[in-house]
Every structure is written in C-alpha cells, then in structure tokens.
Design a protein that fits this description.
With about 450 residues, the protein is mainly alpha-helical. It contains 21 helices and 2 strands. A two-stranded parallel ribbon has the order 1-2. The radius of gyration is 22 Å and the shape is globular. The N terminus is likely disordered.
C-alpha cells in the first residue's frame, strides 16, 4: 500500500516545524517478528481491559464482598472508589516506566508491566471477604488496584511505541490498530464472562466463589503474555539509539521529557482527551446512562454495548489500513467532526428508547470512535523522537487519561445532576471534539513516513 503525505493546514498557519527525521539506510523489518510484537503488545492491552470489563460489571457483587453490609449505595461507591484510585497512580507509573523504557529498553519494561498487571488482577481473586478478615479486605483490594494502575501507566505508551518502532512505515497504521483490537477483545471477554456467570450462577454462588473466577483467569493470561514478550528482541529504533552511544545510554532528565517536548505533549494531551472522553463515554458510561437515567433494561443495555464493540472489532483493522492510505490526520479529523455534528442526533436516538433506536445511536458513536482507536496507536508515538518517545508519551497519555478520560462518567453524572439536562453526554463529547480538532489541526502528518529520529523502515521478506 502506498501512503502519500496528506495536505493539512496552510504552512503559514503552522506555529513550528515538525521534528527533524533521521536520514539513513532503510531498516528491513522481519514480518514474523512484527507479528509476534503485535500479538505480545495487544495481549497486554486485552488484559488491562478484561479487568476493566470484569470490575465494572461485577461491581455490585464486589461491594457486598469487600465492604460492610447495610448500605448498598455506600458499598457500590466504595467499590468504584477503589476502581478510580487506579487512575490516580497512572501518571506516577508513566513517570517511572516511561523514562525507564527509554533507558533500558521497551521490551524489558513491557515484561515488567505485564507481570505487575497480571499479579494485581490475580491477587484480587485471592483476597478474603470483609466477613472473613474485616477492614483488611478493602485495604488489600485498594492495594491490588494501585498495583494495577501503576503498571498500566507504562503499558499503553510502551505497547504503542513497541508496535510503532517494529512496523514498516507504510503499514504502521494497520499494525497499530491491532492494539485497540486487543482492548475491545479484552473488554468484551471480561463483560461477556460476567454476563454469562450472572446468568448461570445463583446469587449465593456468585457471592461465595463465582466472582473470583474472572480475576483468577488473569494468572494464565499473564504467563502467556510474559512468554510472548520475553521472546521478542528490542525494537530496531531503540537498538539504533543504543548503538549511537559508546557506553550505556545517558539518562534523559524527566524535565527534558516535558519542557523539551512541550508542543508535542500538548498535542498528545489534546488527542488523548478526545480519544478517551469518547471512549469512556461510550464503553463505560452509556450502560449506566441507559439503566439509571433512561430506566432501560440492564441486560439489554449491556448486550447493545457488547454488540457495538464487536462491530468496532470487525471494522478496526480496515480503518487502520485506511490511515496508511489517506493519513492519520484526515481520519482523526473525520472522527472529531462526526462527534461535533452527530453527538446530539445519536443521543436523541438513544433516548427514544426502542432497541433499534438505541442500537443505531450507539452504533453511530461506535463507528466514530473507530476513527480514534484505529489512528491513535500509530499517530501518538510519531509525535516524539526515539530517545524520549516512551517517556514523553507515557507522561502525556496518562495525565490526559487521568484528568479527562477516567473522570468522564463522574463529571457527566454530576453535570446532569446539576443542570437536569439529559443531553449532557452529547455536549461533553462535542466539547472534547473541539479540543481534538484543534490538536489535529496543528499535528504533522506521519503516515508513510519514518518515525522522528529513526531511519526509514521497509517491509522485509
């Protein structure tokens, strides 16, 4: 496939020139090694969102298991409080694992984050209930969630960097899109497993032992993921950076990763904002919106969301390949424009209430979200040069997710409560689309081009 640079804004309106790209002999990629890299990176993302799906949809049961009885609302709030705590430590994880990945290597750090994610999730399945050990049950749950959040801080940036640095320039969008394919597969697997267990097990069995099964599955998944990641070599781009140094790579100060990349970081925060606000709105908040605000049947609402994610999975690789042909910027811009123009009509369809209307409204939002899920894994790493790519991307990504993405359900719920306006989800997505549109206006097209600071990468045979 050919990928020609896409004209974006008139040169006079660009505030600064793009990051210089390294010239040199092209690097031939090994197709088999690239496939292994994609599988290993995507599995980590799948595990992260498997846990997300499980935790979200079994939250009521977890509240009863880990917190004092007597107030179901307090139990649920406490459970989601432990869930939200993981978002608070994500930037800290990014500040630790990101710079470390630029110093010792992407592969080593991704192996560590895989171990920590699997251990944190597996540990939840082993924690005794509140009835057994009292206050230590919620304390241990919080500790496990903090381990998960800390490791996740280095996961997405590392995985997207890993795929981007392995992929040939002309197929980076297609190969990167499989990272979010893993996200959708993990979420569907987690939510689907909880739905199946809820249907098959009695309330008593689910409370006593059934809830542990999804978390214990993380153990074998982590072993498989670690095996895949340990078999990989370091990325060619990082290996070339190491070769430039006569001794060990010098440590890049954290301040340089921020102040030295301030423009790229601002673009990263803006792109991640529109990506994650719309993502969390559709996949996390809308099931609750259907149930609590529209009094929609909980099971039907969940099945609609799972159906939308399955549709997104089918479209995802094709959309990723499209970004290689027409560019990342046009696809991301189309998503921003779509959310700006169609959020209100889509939410009005959803509010109509019939199964067909809800499916159409959710499906439209899902197809717009694919514009971001298919583009961001290849667009975001291309914002930064190789020597600081993992660190700067980790910082920008996790700060934006923690401030804007993870807070979306809470903020939208509060806005509805304060204003009484049930259209707030649409307005919030429209505001995010404006921010994303500004970011895409100023970003440089990266499709078909070498990563900043790296030699051209071509597909080997």
């Amino acid at each position: 496939m050919s990928a020609a640079p896409v004209a974006a804004a008139p040169p006079s309106r660009r505030p600064s020139a793009p990051v210089p790209r390294a010239a040199g002999a092209p690097t031939a990629t090994d197709p088999a090694l690239v496939r292994r890299a994609v599988k290993a990176a995507a599995l980590g993302n799948a595990m992260e969102w498997f846990d997300f799906g499980v935790y979200s949809y079994i939250a009521v049961t977890l509240g009863k298991v880990f917190f004092p009885s007597g107030n179901p609302t307090a139990q649920l709030l406490s459970t989601f409080g432990a869930f939200a705590a993981a978002f608070l430590v994500r930037p800290l994880g990014g500040m630790v694992f990101g710079p470390l990945g630029d110093r010792v290597g992407r592969q080593k750090v991704l192996a560590v984050t895989m171990i920590m994610m699997a251990a944190g999730t597996f540990a939840i399945g082993l924690i005794p209930s509140y009835a057994t050990i009292g206050v230590w049950a919620p304390v241990l749950l919080l500790a496990a969630r903090l381990v998960q959040g800390f490791s996740t801080g280095g996961e997405y940036a590392g995985a997207s960097t890993f795929i981007a640095e392995y992929a040939p320039d002309k197929r980076r969008g297609f190969l990167g899109s499989w990272l979010e394919f893993g996200t959708l597969a993990g979420y569907i697997g987690g939510a689907g497993l909880v739905t199946l267990m809820t249907a098959l097990l009695s309330d008593g069995d689910l409370m006593s032992w059934g809830w542990r099964i999804p978390f214990l599955i993380a153990g074998p998944m982590g072993i498989v993921g670690l095996y895949l990641r340990m078999r990989l070599e370091e990325t060619p781009a990082f290996a070339a950076e190491v070769a430039k140094a006569e001794t060990a790579r010098p440590k890049v100060p954290l301040r340089e990763m921020v102040t030295g990349q301030w423009r790229a970081l601002l673009l990263c925060v803006g792109l991640v904002l529109v990506f994650n606000v719309t993502d969390y709105m559709l996949l996390s908040y809308m099931p609750s919106y259907l149930t609590s605000e529209l009094e929609y049947d909980e099971t039907h609402g969940l099945l609609v969301v799972l159906g939308v994610m399955a549709l997104m999975m089918v479209v995802q690789p094709f959309a990723g390949a499209l970004t290689d042909r027409v560019g990342r910027r046009p696809v991301i811009a189309a998503g921003c424009a779509g959310f700006l123009l169609l959020s209100v009509p889509a939410l009005l369809l959803i509010r109509e209430g019939s199964l067909l209307a809800v499916a159409l409204g959710m499906g439209a939002l899902g197809m717009l979200l694919v514009c971001f899920t298919a583009s961001m894994p290849s667009a975001l790493p291309a914002l930064f040069p190789t020597r600081v790519r993992y660190g700067s991307l980790s910082i920008g990504f996790n700060v934006s997710v923690s401030l804007f993405g993870g807070t979306t359900p809470l903020v939208v719920t509060a806005l509805i409560g304060a204003t009484g306006d049930m259209m707030m989800p649409a307005y919030y997505m429209m505001a995010a689309a404006v921010v994303g549109g500004v970011a895409v206006w100023f970003m440089t097209e990266s499709a078909g081009r070498p990563l900043p600071g790296s030699a051209p990468a071509v597909e080997g045979r």
